Amino acid sequence: MATRGAAAAFVIWKHRNNPSLRSISSHHFYPIFKPQIIPKGCRYQIRAIQGESVDRGTQSKNNDEPKPKPENWKIKMLYDGDCPLCMREVNMLKERNEEYGTIKFVDISSNDYSPQENQGLDYKTVMGQIHAIQSEGNVVTGVEAFRKLYELVGLGWVYSITKFEPIGKVADAVYDFWAKYRLQVTGRPPIEAILEARKKNKVETCGNSKACKT
User: Cβ contacts of residue 211 below 8 Å, gap of 6+?
Assistant: First the structure.
């Protein structure tokens, strides 16, 4: 340490007494003794961290941007929006459809439901069992409708076994039983009472709209 101190003192003395070196700023020698360079180094490090945080923020923002959705549907699902158990499955399919965009959902319980826009299928008919309409106009019902719907959102394996007999017939029988008694199971009135209430509600709320005339 004594040797380093003596060497440093000699350098400073030489610098001050040598005219040829007076033009050189004395700060070139300060790093040997003073820690001023440390704040400069810290400043550069802080800038690097700030730059990294901006990049992460930009990346996060990009991840939050909604993904583009396909506009062309391949099948239309007619569902009863007043059926609580049915809506659990419908909501699941809607969530899956966010990625695929292959299903168009039509709530038959809405006052805006129009049979003319859905292959002439009236409310009472569709209430009897699940109906789906393919983009080319074909109408499918029952388990087959579910099979088509699930296939188009990447869940075809769920109903794939129903393609084979006798499993297909058993599945159809189970669904037909459910469809026949689903109103009672879900605590709703008979279909006749629902139709009467629906007719009255249309007259009271729809006025002269097209839906009230269907």
Answer: 110, 111, 112, 113, 114, 202
The helix (H) or strand (E) run that includes residue 105 is strand 103-107
Q: What SS3 class is residue 66?
A: coil
For residues 140, 106, 104, 66, the Cα torsion angle rounded to the nearest 10 degrees is -150
Cα angle, residue 214 at apex, residues 182 and 82 outer, rounded to 5°? 25
Phi/psi for 63 (5° steps) reads -70, -25
Residue whose tokens read 């399919």:
93
pLDDT of 10 reads: 44
**166 upstream amide cis, omega within 30 of 0:** yes
**pLDDT tens, residue by residue, 183-197:** 999 999 999 999 999
The number of beta carbons lying within 10 Å of the beta carbon of residue 111 is: 14
pTM over 0.70: no
Distance between CA atoms of 81 and 90, rounded to whole angstroms? 9
pLDDT reading at 53 higher than 90 = no
CA atoms within 13 A on the CB side of 102: 14
Neighbours of 120 (CB within 10 A): 9
